[in-house]
Amino acid sequence: MKKRILVPIIAIGILFTTVSFKSDFFEIAKQIEIFTTLFKELNMNYVDEVTPATLMDKAIKGMLEDLDPYTVYWNEQQVEDAKINNSGIYTGIGASAQSKKDKIIIVEPYQGYPADKAGLKAGDEIIKIGNVTIADLEDDAGELLKGAPGSKVEVTYKRQGKTATTTITRDAVEIKAVPFYKLINNEIGYIVLSQFNGRTTLETKAALVDLKSQGAKKIILDLRGNPGGLLNEAINVVNLFVDKGEVITTTKSVIEKYNQTYKTKSEPVDTEIPLVVLVNGRSASASEIVSGGLQDLDRAVIVGARSFGKGLVQRPKKLTYGTQLKVTISRYYTPSGRCIQALDYWHRDENGDPIRKDAKEYNEYKTKGGRSVYDGGGILPDVQLESGVYSPITTALLKDNAIFDYATKYYYSHQMTDWKNFKFTQNDFQDFLKFLKDNNFEYETETEKKFAEALKISEADDMNKDISNGYNQLMAAIDTAKDKAIVNKKVEIESLLMDEILKRYFYREGLYNYQIEHNPEILEAVAVLNDEGRYRKILK
C-alpha cells in the first residue's frame, strides 16, 4: 500500500518541478526576446543618434536598481579593480582618490609612495593628466594615472586656489591589511586591521606573533572603519583566536547550494589571551563576521558602536567580454543564529525605502556560554561608546565631504610639528560650524527628502501655492534643528575631525600613535583589559 501511495507522490513532485523549470525558462526566454527586439528597433529608428553601449548600461542599471545595492554590474575595468583590491598589490601613484566630473581629488597620499614623493597632499584637485584635461574626458580619468612601474606621468593640480604641476613616477603599491600594530604599556598588543584582502590572515598572524614575542599578554583588534572583503580571510582571522572546528558563520539562501556552514580549519595561535575587538558604524561585512563570531563564542569583548549591518553575501558571475555580475546569493548569520543584515531590501515601506527592524522587534539569541545577544542588524558591542557612533547628521557631513574639506582648511592655516600636543578646542569646533555656514554645505536629511517629495506631489495636485509658505517655514525650522543636531553630536563629529586633521600632518602612523593615547574607544578597550574582573564579568 505504501508503495502505491509513494510512487504517485514522487511522480507528481517531478512533474511540478519540471513544469516549473520549463515555465521559468520560457518566461526568461520570452522577456529576452522582447528586450532584444526593442533594443534593435530603438537603435535603428530613434530620431536622434543613440549609443548602444550607453543605452545598454542604463538598461542594466535600471534592472538592478530595485534590488539590494550590492548586486551590481562590473565592466572590464571594474573587474580588474576588484582583483587588485583583493590581492592588495597594484601599480600606480599610491593614493586614494575621488573622481569628480572635472577633477580627481586626492583623499589620502600613502606615505613614501609616488604621489607622496611628488608632493601631492590630501585635498589637491588634479585637473589635467599629461595633455588630457579631465573636464573634457568622458571616461574614468583615474585610468590615466595607472601604468607600468617606473613610467612617469605629469599632473596639473589646484591647491588653495593656485595651479601647479608635478611629475609622478609610478611604482608598485602594497595595500596593507594591517597598516599598524604596536605594544601598549608593555603588555597590550594593538593591531589595526583595515581590510580583508588576500594578505589579511598572513599579516594579522605576523603582527600577533610579533606582539606576543615583545611581551603582549592582551590584544586589541581594531576593526573600526573596515568595510570587509574576502569571507575566507574573516574565518581565518577568527581562527587565530579559537580552536579548529568552530562554526563562525552560516549562509542561507532560497537556493540550496548556497546554504553553507563555515568552520575554522587550522590550529589557532592563542585561544586564551584576553581580547577586545573595536567596531563602529563603518565596520561591515567580513568585519561583522569576525566581531560577531568572537562575540557569540564568548572569545572577545566588543567595544564601540553598532556595526554597519551588511550581511548579504555576493558572488561574482562571469559574463561575456570580461564583464561580471556581482550578485547577492545569500545572507550571513553569526554562530548564535543572528542575521547580520540591517536593512530589508525585499520588504519596503510605502515610500519604497528598505525596512529596518524596530528595536522592540529584536530577537534574543544565546552565545556559546549562555549570554544574551540580539539581532537587529550589525553587531551591538558589549561596551557602547558615543564617540564611535555615526548618526544621520554625521553621516551626511561625511557624505558631503564637509569634514574632509575642513581638515584641508585647517592644515593650511595651522602649524603643527608634534602630534602629542594636538588638541581640537572649543574655538576650533565653533570655527568648523562657521565653515559650514560660509561654504553653504547642504547636507540633506531624510526628513528634508520626504518633505521635498511631498512638495513635488503637491505641485502635481495644484496645491503647492497654498502650502509653499508653510513649507518654507518648515525648512527653516529643519535648518535650525540641523544646527542643533551638529552641536548635540559634537563628540562623534570631533573624533572624525581630529582623525582627518592628524592624517594631514603625520600620516596614518601619527594618527594611530595619537589614538593610542587619546582615542576614547582605545582607552576604554585598555581599561577593560586591565580590569580582569570586569572583562570576565562581561563574558559571563
What's the gyration radius in Å? 26 Å
- Measured distance between first and last alpha carbons: 56 Å
From the spread of the alpha carbons, the general shape counts as globular
What is the C-level CATH assignment of the largest domain? Alpha Beta
SSE diagram, text form:
Elements (H helix, E strand, L loop, with lengths): L1 H44 L6 H13 L7 E3 L1 H12 L1 E4 L2 E5 L4 E6 L4 H4 L7 E5 L2 E2 L18 E8 L2 E8 L1 E4 L5 E5 L3 E5 L7 H14 L4 E5 L8 H9 L7 E6 L7 E4 L11 E5 L6 H11 L4 E4 L7 E7 L5 E10 L9 E6 L5 E3 L7 E3 L5 E3 L8 E2 L7 H8 L2 H10 L14 H13 L7 H15 L3 H25 L1 H29 L1 H11 L1 H8 L1
Parallel strand pairs: 11-12, 12-15, 15-16, 16-23
Antiparallel strand pairs: 1-18, 2-9, 3-4, 4-5, 5-6, 5-7, 7-8, 10-11, 13-14, 13-18, 17-18, 19-20, 21-22
Helix pairs in contact: 5-6, 6-7, 9-13, 11-12
Can you walk through the features of this model?
The protein has 15 helices and 23 strands. Helix content is 42%, strand content 21%. The chain is an alpha+beta fold and 540 residues long. The radius of gyration is 26 Å and the shape is globular. The chain folds into 3 domains: 92-174, Pdz3 Domain; 180-314 and 330-384, 2-enoyl-CoA Hydratase, Chain A, domain 1 (Alpha-Beta Complex); 392-518, no CATH class. The strands form 6 sheets. Strands 3, 4, 5, 6, 7 and 8 form a 6-stranded antiparallel β-sheet that branches. A 6-stranded mixed β-sheet has the order 10-11-12-15-16-23, with helices on both faces. The longest helix has 44 residues, at 2-45.
